[in-house]
Specification:
alpha+beta
Length: 69
């Protein structure tokens, strides 16, 4: 069974696009890409680079969390 669809977020005309592989457990629950520990790291990295997450389009290649095998 598939989890929740995790849609990309951010401005459609963003100059920076962040693309991850697939949602994790937190992202599956919240529906927000990079909302778990990876999101905290991403936010810090963007801040260190002088950018804001709100200025970026954030998404994943795969929109559903992959099943465990």
């Amino acid at each position: 069974m598939l989890g929740n669809y995790v849609q990309g977020q951010g401005p459609s005309d963003a100059r920076i696009v962040v693309v991850g592989e697939a949602p994790g457990a937190v992202e599956d629950q919240t529906g927000v890409p990079f909302s778990g520990p990876s999101g905290e790291l991403l936010n810090q990295m963007l801040q260190n680079a002088g950018s804001k997450r709100s200025e970026c389009y954030v998404t994943n290649v795969v929109k559903y969390r992959p099943p465990f095998k």
